[in-house]
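Q: Focus on the chain.
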Amino acid sequence: MLQWKAGVVAAVMAGMVGFGCGGEAPMEEAAGPSPTERYLTQLEDDEHDNQCGKKICFDAIERDKNITHIFLDFGKCPVKDFTVKLFTESRGWEDVTDRLKSKGGPCKELEADYRFEVPGPDKEAKVCIIFHDYVTDDVRIGAKSADECRYEDGDDFSAFERNGDCRKCRKE
């Protein structure tokens, strides 16, 4: 126990001396990371993008009337194992994965892979998807309110069909 206390005191003193003798960082360090460090960081980010558990969120699903359904479409990516979380003002955050349906329902013209009902009443929602088998950034999200069924603005189906980013994720 006495040796442990002595070690702690030594570590604290070394930190204090180092802190007191500091000063400005050398010019090299202030300039930012080297090209090699930036490259390695990019590789780490790319690897993380392919990890199971990657999450993407849609923050601004808004309609003029109450949202009754939300639709998810993964294009040609065979996403089957994922978790869906929904945030609404009236209910807060909730896991809606067990409420997902892939057949029937309204808005068949959207040709979505999955849908779920939103208990509401809410005109705004946030949806997060956490991937467990395949990872894709090509997700379209739509909503139904009153008699209107549509995907979010900016979701161009022809561009979406390209299936540009779909890969089996790696488990850590």
Remarks:
- Residues 53-152+159-168 form one domain.
- The two ends are 38 Å apart (CA to CA).
- The longest strand covers residues 55-62.
